[in-house]
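Quick start: read one record
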Amino acid sequence: MKHLKLFTGISLGIGLLAANLPAQTDAPYKVLDTTQLMGSGGTDYVYADNDGRRVYVMRGNAALVFDLDSHKYIGSITNISGHGVAVDTKSHHGFSSGPQIGMFDTETMQKIKSIEVQGRPDGILFEPFTDKIYVLSHESPNLTVIDPMDGTVVGTLDLGGSPEQAQSDGQGHLYVDLEDKDSVAVVDVKAMKVTATYGLQGKGAGPGGLGLDAKNHVLFVMCHEPSVCVILNADNGTILATLPTGNGTDGGGFNPNTMEAFSSQRDGTLTIIKENSPTDFAVEQTVQTKAGCRTSTLDTKNNHIVLICTERPAGTNAAPAQVASTTSTNQPAAAPRNRRYNGPAWLDVLFVGRQN
């Protein structure tokens, strides 16, 4: 089923398209539904608020909000920008990660204030052990901790590298992949210090996604070069396995309900890795999604993986015409570069799961 619906404002249109899919037992993963929203501006992370049953996508100067169950567009929180969103369900406060952190009310969908932070914010998450918001920055300080009740900055920490994604075990440990150091930093969130750094030992480089089986203490580190998932023991950093993935990962996770890790890739694939035991892993499926769908999040209620990407409207994909010209030496001039497309584009929100 694909949703499309026309509207005005930040986006130019939305709509609805339906397709009947046969029910299957123990079926493989597939794209079950796609919601499309026309607009402009880039995207980065997608975030599922599993308690509030909403999906958040930062685009341009707004956070776009979708219903996690119906998949329909709800509305937007304006005058905020950034890469991603994290929500504290107790305070009903959400936060966007950007040059200024945007704090908003999840119930009224209104901005509360901007929060000044240092570094170059990118990723963001809610950490359940401390009940705090953690902002990941590519420049020092790499971690900024915010109290979600009032939006005050309560601490910072340098990790010795550029963080891309983080996962909490809910027991006081935060695991952060360091993209430029090919390693994973382990943070004691109570003491607010780095207690260990696990190197990938040449098995993978440029980690962009991270999954964590908190019960069995297993880390799934999704890497760019080569395109692999390096699987580590979360207690000591021992490498347990290395498995192939698609190209261009920028997000990943782990679903304890199904004992599966997943990695979303720019090449339009989603890699599903089955944990048969804490020492036995296998690539279970490579799901075809859409080109550019490199980030993902997990709907823990429905066991759906949610991905996002953008695509140009029909008729705008062709490269600009090449102009025949010569230089003063009568040699052919260099072919002009393809102009970067900055016009309206669809935001695709994909919902991947098993057909019941």
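The longest strand covers residues 29-39.
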